Amino acid sequence: MNPSIRKRLLIILLSATTLVYGVSTVKTYLDGRHDVTELLDAQLAQAAHALHALSMHELFEQLAYEAQLNASGDAGVARKITPQVHKYEQPVAFQIWLGGEKLAVRSVNAPAHPLSLIDDVFADRVIDGQVWRVYSAWNSEHTIKVHVGELLVVRDNLADLLATHNVTTYVISLPMLALLIWLGVRHAMDPLQRIAAEVGGREFDNLKGLDIKGVPLEAKPLVEALNGLFQRLQLSFDNVRSFTGNAAHELRTPLAALKTHAQVGRGQKDYDGAIAALDYVIDDVNRAIHLVEQMLTIARLDPESQLLKMEDVDLCDIAQEEMAVMGIIALEKDVQLHLQCECNHMARGKSALLATLIRNLVGNGIRYTRDAGQVHVTIDEDQNQIVMRVADDGPGISPAEREKVFERFYRSTETNTKANGSGLGLSIVRRIIELHGASISLDESALGGLLVEVRLQAGIPRRQTHTRSKLAG
User: Fold this and answer.
1) What is the CATH number of the domain that holds 128?
2) pTM score, two decimals?
3) Is residue 200 in a domain?
4) Is 316 helix (H, G, I), strand (E, B) or coil?
């Protein structure tokens, strides 16, 4: 099953957003409770200090009154003091102790025994089965001690309420954000949907480039790659049409000649005439076979999918093997083949293709040179390159035609017209050169004919060097 970019983006974005929102929500809730706790603790401390200031005058009067009662012998009156009404009575419970031992004033909701057991420290304490948050502090004279406290359940309810309000904002905004993300991803994917619709609705022969206007920056390389592919496909289709047309034209000639010579042979009354006609038939068949072989070779070299994995090959050994095979053809024309190799390194390439290259170059030299002529092959080095030169003493090729002869089915008007060439040999050579990233050039040879120079990348050192041989003739 093919993955969906839209679904993948939605899953990633929504998961990341939910995770971040979840962590933020938990942190906000915990921070909210902590902040409320700190705020309420500060409120307790402020209440204690405020009670010191606001109750000082009343307490001094109470102390004077108790002193008079003690002097008159009337004891126990202080224990029956009516709780005073104070603005901090709710929800903060408070106690005011004289000397830290006698309860002078307490709020209605405060217990009769001390709220806090530790001075100047916030603490949680269980009193009468209820948990209190308590705090106590002395005045500056250390004569009055104030205890303040709140029920912990009241504080927790308040903290939960405030923290829940903050969390509710996150919970409400998350679905809205998810909807906006979904709409944004859908809108961002619209250009790709448009490109897909445009490509899907095309006719098979419509290879025009796609319009990159309005295409997102991330999708632009993909569209440009598609346009490059369309361009290469168009070029390939044009080559196929051209190749097919040229091949049909080239095959028509040997087939027509074959038919003519066969008809002539059929009409011959004497043996010698029939044999002569059959010889022509054999020549025409050989020419057709050569043409078909060349066409199959170049067809195999055409696809761009044939990416080469370069190897280190011994060009001298390949040349010696191929020229030994070509020696049979050279003997028919009494052409002398010479190979000279002064190369210390291997060549980078594919041995099968390089063998085809040498076979075509040497074959062209044999085919177009004069009878009893010569074809010399030399292989040496120039810096980091392997240089192979193929020279003959044939008619050569004029500078004006040296580029044209690499075109398919092109045959020079200056060469030997009796040669059974197909016009594909040098086209095959050029394609092999392109696949190897090498170079080729044509010039006039020292023998008076054509000089073909091929330059390949050098590889590792070779074992055998300085090969000189005369292979035929």
Assistant:
1) 3.30.450
2) 0.47
3) no
4) helix
* CA dist., res. 371 & res. 369, Å (int): 7
Task: Report residues of the chain scoring pLDDT below 70.
Answer: 1-4, 51-91, 100, 239, 242-254, 287, 290-291, 294-295, 297-308, 408-424, 464-473
**Residue 306 included in any domain:** no
Which residue range forms the structural domain that includes residue 374?
311-472
Same domain as 340, residue 280: no
Picking from 460, 369, 378, the residue whose alpha carbon sits closest to that of residue 419 is 369
User: Any idea what DSSP says for residue 423?
Assistant: S
Of 59, 63, 249, the C-alpha closest to 139 is 59
Residues sharing a CB contact under 8 Å with residue 130, sequence separation 6 or more, in sequence order: 151, 152, 153
End residue of a domain, out of 126, 160, 194: 160
- Helix pair 425-436, 351-368: axis angle to 10 deg: 150
**What is the residue whose two structure tokens read 């050579």?**
429
Residue in this structure with the two tokens 């679904």, named with its chain if needed:
7
Is the same domain home to 33 and 127? yes
Question: ∠ CA(5), CA(11), CA(13), 5° rounding?
Answer: 95
